[in-house]
Amino acid sequence: TLKAVNHVSLTIRKGETVGIVGESGCGKTTFGRTLKRLYTATSGEVLYKGQDIFKMNRAQAHQYAKEVQMIFQDPYSSLDPRMTVREIVREGMLNHGIYKGDRAAQDKRIHELLTMVGLNEEHADRFPHEFSGGQRQRIGIARALIMEPDFIIADEPISALDVSIRAQVLNLLSELQKARGLTYLFIAHDLSVVRFICDRIAVIHKGQIVELAESEELFAHPFHPYTQALLSAIPQPDPIAERQK
Fold first, then answer.
1. Integer angstrom CA distances of residue 46 from 9, 13, 58, 181, 201
2. How far out from the chain centre does Cα 88 lie?
3. Which pTM was predicted?
4. What is the C-alpha to C-alpha distance for residues 27 and 179, in angstroms, rounded to an integer?
5. Are 10 and 202 in contact (CB under 8 A)?
6. For residue range 101-137, what is the model confidence (pLDDT) as tens digits?
7. Cβ neighbours of residue 38 under 8 Å, at least 6 residues apart?
C-alpha cells in the first residue's frame, strides 16, 4: 500500500534551511501542508519547539499559525480573487493584531513588503487576475513575510518566476534569514536552486525520505540510487558528458 507520506523523520534546527526534493507526486507538498496543520497526520507527531502541533489548544494554535507561514506552490489558487492585494496582505495582520487599529502603519508596512519582493505601491489596489504568475507568487511571499514568522514552509516558491526574478527572490529569502534568524523548509524540483540555498537536503521517493545529507555532501557523494538518478538528470552544457550518462 502506498501512503502519501510514510516513515518521515526529520529534525529542522533553528536558523537553517532544509531542502525537500523529489519527483512530482512523491509527497513533498503533502509533507509541507501537514507541518502547517492544513492536513492532519493520521499517525505520528509533529513537534514544534517541543510541542505536538496537533495537540495544541486554541491559543497555542493561533500563535503557531502566526509563527509558521507557508508560501504555496500555486500562486493563483492561494489568493482570493475577490480581494485586492492590500486586503490579501493585510488579512493576517488583522487576524493577529499586528499594528492593531493603525491602518496607516499597516499600509506603510504593506508597501515596504511589496517593494521588497519587486512590486510597486500602486499594485496594492489591484486584484490577483491582473498579475502574471510570477507577480502573484511575489504577492504570496509578501503575505507570508508580513507576519514576521520564525519558520517558513516554501513550497516551490520560485517555480513560477522567470530567471531574472528567481535570483532576486532567493537573495531576498537569504537576506531575511540572516537578518531575522528565519528557518526554512524549502520544497523544490530545481536541484541547483536547492544546492544554492539549503544547508541540508532530504530526498523523498514514494512518500519516504531515502537520503538526508549536507548539501554539498549530497551532490559530491549521492548514496541512494534514486538520488543518483535525480542528479544524473541535471542537464550539462557538455555534449560529450551528456552522451556518456
1. 9, 14, 17, 21, 19
2. 18
3. 0.88
4. 31
5. yes
6. 888 999 999 999 898 888 888 999 999 999 988 888 8
7. 70
